[in-house]
Amino acid sequence: MGTGKLIVLTGPSGVGKGTLLKALLHRHPDFYLSTSVTTRSPRLGEIDGQHYFFQTRPQFQSMVEQGDLLEWAEFAGNCYGTPRRAVADQVAAGKTVILEIELEGARQIKHTFPSAMRIFVAPPSLETLEQRLRGRGQDSEEAIARRLAHAQIELDAADEFDVQVVNGDLDIALQHIENALYAPLVG
Q: What integer pLDDT is reported at residue 187 of this predicted model?
């Protein structure tokens, strides 16, 4: 069995990480999608252990203190993190594990799992990102403005990542990610 790898997808809200992830998993059914731990309440239809592992804040805090998380961060009053053991076990078994996480968590992974390939997904432009956020119809004007301001900060961090993919056209972006995954390692 070959050794597996950890792939981290990050990028601004609305950039299409989820869509890219779905397409990658559809094309590579053997990939393992890491399930995050969160302190937020389940939304309608979400199943514990499938969409997230739902934990109380004290349980989550205990995981942080025991080093059970590869990365974690707090957003909008809730904590989110990646369970270390599940990822390590899958990688050890030769699997390709994919994480879709925020910038803060992706930065932590560089230290907690240095061999991870970290991919930054960028929009073709901030205007395109704004259109996508508006198109989702989920956010108030204020929230959109906040997300766009945050996106600018995230875009400034793009060059910290191993691979940068512009998601203007889904198929081209997917091809770019697959090329990065399967390119012979140089060095």
A: 46
CB 110 within 8 A of CB 99: no
Q: Is 133 exposed, middle or buried (0-12, 13-18, 19+ CB in 10 A)?
A: buried
Reported as type and span, the H/E element at residue 97 is: strand 96-100
For residue 56, is it within any domain?
yes
pLDDT averaged over 10-residue windows placed end to end, the chain, 187 residues: 84 92 94 95 92 96 97 90 95 95 93 95 93 87 90 93 95 95 67
pTM for the model stands at 0.88
Which CA distances in Å does 157 have to 102, 120, 160, 166?
Answer: 12, 9, 6, 14
Kindly provide the b/e burial profile for residues 71-106, where b requires at least 16 CB atoms within 10 angstroms of the residue's own CB: bbbeeeeebbbbbbebbeebbeeebbbbbbbbbbbb
- Residue 95 main-chain phi, psi, to 5 deg: -80, 155
What CATH number does residue 139 fall under?
Answer: 3.40.50.300
Contact 127, 14 (CB under 8 A): no
- Flag whether 187 is in a domain: no
